[in-house]
Amino acid sequence: MGYRYYIRLFYWFVVAVIGMNFQTTAQVSDVVFENFSMNDGLTHNTITSLFQDSKGYIWIGTTSGLNRFDGRVMKEYKNEPLDSKSLSNNRINSICEDAKGNLWLATEYGLNCYDRTLGEFEIFTHDEKNENSLSSNVVYNVFCDSKNKIWVKTIKTVDLYDPITKKFKHYDHYYDVFNPLPENPNFPFFEDSKGVLWVATNDGLDMFDQQYEQFVRFESNPVISTSISDNQVKCLFEDSRHNLWVGTSHGLNKFNRTDKTFERLKIFPGNTQDAVNAIVEDNNYNLWIASGESGLIKMDHVKKTIQVFKQNIDASKSIPNNNLYCLLKDKSEIIWIGTRTGLSKMDSKKKKFNLYCNTRESIFTLSGNDITSLLADKDEDIFVGTRNEGITMINRLKKVARYYTTSNHKINDKHVNVLYRTHD
């Protein structure tokens, strides 16, 4: 029996180390990041949470306040010590929205519910004299499920809030007091397509059985390669093909619902395993992964390839930092990235327009940007008339451009009003 056991153990070790490797490809140069910082109105550069509400606003939680972004203006929300209807605390750990359009915020001191109509925050805190109050003032996550239940994660418990009675019901889960917390603790909830509620904890992954009101715990085991890679669970995500992904402080896992095992994926270069803090999926079925120190990772789990996007101090349009904390894919398919040093915006969609202008960055450099007229001929040449800069002829198939100006004696006047083709 011992011989067979070690053979099986060696097999799973080989699978874990070799079989799940991904090939790293070069960083794509045409992906640009638009970056935002405190200079653009953020309350702080360290972004802890991102959420898009039913009205389309982007809500940005930071270590020092909350922002609402409408695409142009950042609105600021902060704790005001003399205003009991302001935020209870400026560190925002997570954000969600209930069926009535109220925003719920998990903070370092209390749970907050924002009433948009009144513009006020209702604050819930722990009361030692009230067993139906919030179990702890430090709230790591809040989640509104498909049945409009409000779930709250504290370090030791999961609380379920009843908006009618305004009481909290407490569910204890396994908690190791000696297990240190991560730098930015955020233990999210996740409801999968089957209605199962999952809870990330500092001591493993919990699946909540709502019928029996009990937790089923999945923990890491160093001698079982099909266990979860680490007990410190950072994020949960289900893709469009119903694969359940689990990010931990030590790598990425894919959960097998049939046999309740985990496939550990090696997506980081070398033998390192970085933290996986957040995951989203684009419309091409690629997963985008926010890592703890390795930048932004684009993963094609069908082709087994990854692309890594890291900070480039010489490029203003690169990601601002390699320490990423959260991700959001909004309704227009734009991916928002919360980092240690600011917010980044990336459009993952293929470009529908090519820009032609008088710049070195353009595919074809025009003679001028003040365009007055356009003409296409039968050879698929495009003639661009400009004000005071002559004519540029572009052939997109041959990828060449020619210029007609007064300086090269091709035309008599550099100011072009109309281009017109006569019949042959």
Spell out the key features of this protein:
mainly beta, 4% helix, 424 residues, 1 helix
Question: Could you characterize what this model shows?
Answer:
This protein has about 425 residues and is mostly beta strands. Helices cover about 5% and strands about 40% of the residues. The chain has one helix at about 1-20, and strands at about 25, 35, 45-50, 60, 65-70, 75, 90-95, 105, 110-115, 120-125, 140-145, 150-155, 155-160, 165-170, 190, 195-200, 205-210, 215-220, 235-240, 245-250, 250-255, 260-265, 275-280, 285-290, 295-300, 305-310, 325-330, 335-340, 340-345, 370-375, 380-385, 390-395, 400-405. Residues about 1-20 have low confidence and may be disordered. About 35% of the residues are buried. The strands form eight sheets. Strands 1-26-25-24-23 form a five-stranded mixed β-sheet, with no helix packed on it. Strand 32 (about 390-395) and strand 33 (about 400-405) form a beta hairpin.
Brief characterization of the structure:
This protein is mainly β.
Which secondary structure elements does this structure contain, and how are they paired or packed?
Elements: H1 2-19, E1 23-25, E2 33-36, E3 47-52, E4 58-62, E5 65-69, E6 74-77, E7 92-97, E8 103-107, E9 111-115, E10 120-124, E11 141-144, E12 150-153, E13 157-162, E14 167-172, E15 189-191, E16 197-201, E17 204-209, E18 214-218, E19 233-238, E20 244-248, E21 251-256, E22 261-265, E23 276-281, E24 287-291, E25 296-300, E26 305-309, E27 324-329, E28 334-339, E29 342-347, E30 371-376, E31 381-386, E32 391-395, E33 400-404
Parallel strand pairs: 1-26
Antiparallel strand pairs: 2-29, 3-4, 4-5, 5-6, 7-8, 8-9, 9-10, 11-12, 12-13, 13-14, 15-16, 16-17, 17-18, 19-20, 20-21, 21-22, 23-24, 24-25, 25-26, 27-28, 28-29, 30-31, 31-32, 32-33
